[in-house]
């Protein structure tokens, strides 16, 4: 049975407590489509490829982590943005997007979901005294070398990670999905053996080497596939509707 779009959006906003987070983009309903929902398609980024896949799957709602209307971007609806929005509107598909609220949620968040995939026990926040903290710290289910852990990451995510091997046994891990390489200093301060995120910058190599920790960049897209799936599954169970996750490959 179909449910009202407004009810779906209200529950997603409430469950993620989206209003409490000052973000770089609007969270929630970004594009309004048909008023009734039978099927959600979820994915990481609202790219043209994902939108077209949602059209093919006859989705009523496209649920993503990376939506539109970021602070500082050109507000004009031209080029790529025009084509994406035109496809959504022409097919009456709603776009529902959650950025930081989906990173930090304690149940369906990207960071806790990645930990579950990689066998990491969550112990706390990377910066417990910072109200805007995103990353987490925890321990592995068994101590291992950095190379062995990188192999686990490869097997789980299906992507060869970039590894800076500090040479120490890995027990305690810090991580932040996506573009969280800038948190490596906080990870060092937290006393981790290895810090994992999606991307790397040139200086990340030196920070890891000179502070004696290992570092893994496992891919922005690859590390953020799991939160939106978990949120889609939650909404599907809550309202007895259909949910399909579609992964559009992205090597970055």
TrEMBL record:
Keywords: Metal-binding. NCBIfam families: YbgI_SA1388 (TIGR00486). A divalent metal cation binds at residues 65-66, 103, 220, 224. Belongs to the GTP cyclohydrolase I type 2/NIF3 family. One of its GO terms (molecular function) is metal ion binding. Coiled coil: none annotated. InterPro entries: DUF34/NIF3 (IPR002678), DUF34/NIF3_sf (IPR036069). Gene3D superfamilies: NIF3 (NGG1p interacting factor 3)-like (3.40.1390.30). It comes from the Bacteria. One of its GO terms (cellular component) is cytoplasm. This is GTP cyclohydrolase 1 type 2 homolog.
